[in-house]
Amino acid sequence: MFEKPEEVSTALEVVFDQSSDFIVIGFTGRTGSGCSTSAALLSQEKLPLPDVGSSHFKGNEARKYRIIKNYIDKKWQAFEWLQIRAVITGYLLELNFSEFMNLVSGILKEDLDVVKSKIYYFKDEYDIFHLKIKKYIEGGESTIETEGSNLVSSYNLYFKELKDFSDEIREALKKISLGAYTTVYQRLGDNIRSSGRADRSEFNPEKIFNFSETINGIIKSARHNARNKKTKCYIIIDAIRNPYEAVYFRERYAGFFLVSINTDNSNRLAHLRKSHKFTDVQIKNLDEKEYPKRLVGEKKFISQNIQKCIEISDIHINNPRKDQFGTSELASQLAWYVSLMTHPGLVMPTSTESCMQIAYSVKQNSGCISRQVGAIVTDEFYSVKAVGWNNTPQGQVPCLLRSAGHLIDGIDSDAYSFYERNDEGFRGAVEEKYTRLIAKSIDKGRNLAYCFKDIQNEVENEKNQVHTRSLHAEENAFLQISKYGGQKIKGGILFTTASPCELCAKKAYQLGISRIVYIDPYPGIATSHILASGDNCPELSLFRGAIGIAFHRLYQPIMPYKDELEMLLTVPKKENKKDMQIKRLKDENSSLKDRIATLENRFNEKPSSLEETGHSGDSMPDPAI
């Protein structure tokens, strides 16, 4: 066994503490899904978890949850809650009160006198914070001597003072209209991403990460605070609404996880109407803002895009909201993944996670230049029967590998259809659209791939999905089963990274799929129309779990669990009878060798003692002596 078990156990704890010393969770999700509820749970001094028998987990999942709960109850540390609205408020307070009122008037398209009459009452308090921000900015250039004090100032400002003052601004704006706060702060967020200022919307490409850099500075202040307190640093960012903000933090921090909080849309709408008093018009405007149909140009960098944020999330959590378990089901999911962040491999993944991980992986095979989707079909026992991804039929060249320049110049003609090569209308549209870009794309090292569907729809002045060259991921998976001999999938499960469109939903229905698990809702009426009619409707389930790189990071143990227990608890190895007998014989043999050596030493010592008296070994002693 170990010579110094206490030191070995301490070394093990050091390894795990090092890997879990710093964690940043970025929540994302549509307004009303539960990001703030989740953040509030993680920021509590004790996470309120249900007992195993009262949880929603069943079977082996309940046994895994028992391990999770036991671990989190012993190891829990509350997260620091960084609200993005507090960061936006910091930018807003760079403006004096008069500039603030003018900005609100412009965003809401409301008369300035009306705005003034509604919010002037808190001018004095606003001015106090305006001066505080001004002083904070002026002292922003840190030196070795001042860096610590600036970090302490930043921590107190953003995690405490501006968090509370943002509530006061919200209440003030609600006096203008119920939706004023949401409208104003959404615009402020766009302005900051665009220009680095709350009051300017002009796009400055050098400023697209300004917002993220500010948040990064605040995170540093939290790390400084944790070091001073000699604690671990756990932070929640509530909430990330632009995918490039997530990319920024993912590239900087190994301990960053983007977590999407999802709920059934009917639950979300009910919550917005009841708790936030949103009207249907306000909800429609909110959805168009958070889930834009298409973003082009600079809008991709500055606008909210919740759909893309969900698509690239590391972990997906389902907030049931109307479930009998209340927030306990949400809390137990959060506990599951926080435990794995601090101790990877504590339990194994769920069957749903393992299957969706396959779908997520195979979507990378897609050659679609618009969106990559993966799907797998299993039987009712999660045995995989087929995989598929959105791509052109086998034998055709995917769009990602084709080039508008090659089509125009007649290069690699086998990659293009007879229609593309010979139809004058289509070729004319391609030449008009891409000729000027070809030299530029070559200069940038880019392949100038194009979408056939988009160009054909421009030619026809239509929006026809039938022109897509690709099979959808779900139908591709279904066809693979038929193509290679067929297998029984009635009663099986479809896993897809995006919920099926109407065409794929009909195919799933016809094949007898009993359940469809998806990550991101696909726009359209497939859910409410195709899958909500008849006697054998497939059950729709939002995916819960870790995906992509996070799947491996959370479920790959730092070391084999047996080794961990031996080091942590110094578990003795049980010896069998044969080993014990061999050990006994070895001990007896060693003891006999020692006795023989002792006798030999005594025998060798006798002649030397006689020589010391002056007598030879063969003579008798003189009796006269």
Query: Radius of gyration in whole Å, from Cα?
Result: 34 Å
Give the mean pLDDT. 88
Beta content comes to 5-15%
Structural class: alpha/beta
Number of strands: 11
Shape: globular
- Give the count of structural domains: 4
Regions with pLDDT < 50 over 5+ consecutive residues?
A: 141-146, 609-625
Distance linking N and C termini: 63 Å
The largest beta-sheet arranges its strands as 2-3-1-4-5-11
Number of helices: 26
- Helix fraction, binned, reads 40-55%
Sheet with most strands: 6 strands, mixed
Question: In brief, what are we looking at here?
Answer:
The chain has 625 residues and is α/β, with parallel strands linked by helices. The protein has 26 helices and eleven strands.
Give the tags.
six-stranded mixed beta sheet, 625 residues, 9% strand, five-stranded mixed beta sheet, Cytidine Deaminase, domain 2, single chain, 4 domains, alpha/beta
3D architecture notes:
The protein has helices at 5-19, 35-42, 59-75, 84-92, 97-108, 112-119, 123-138, 147-174, 180-195, 210-229, 243-252, 265-275, 280-290, 299-302, 306-311, 328-342, 351-362, 404-409, 418-422, 424-443, 452-460, 473-483, 502-510, 549-555, 561-569, 577-612; strands at residues 22-28, 80-83, 233-238, 256-262, 315-318, 374-378, 384-389, 493-498, 515-520, 539-542, 545-546. It is α/β, with parallel strands linked by helices and 625 residues long. The chain has 4 domains: 21-43 and 78-311, no CATH class; 360-391 and 470-543, Cytidine Deaminase, domain 2, CATH 3.40.140.10; 399-467, no CATH class; 576-612. The protein has a 6-stranded mixed sheet, with helices on both faces. The chain has a 5-stranded mixed sheet with strand order 7-6-8-9-10, with helices on both faces. α5 crosses α6, α8 crosses α10 (210-229) and α20 (424-443) crosses α21. Residues 141-146 and 609-625 have low confidence and may be disordered.
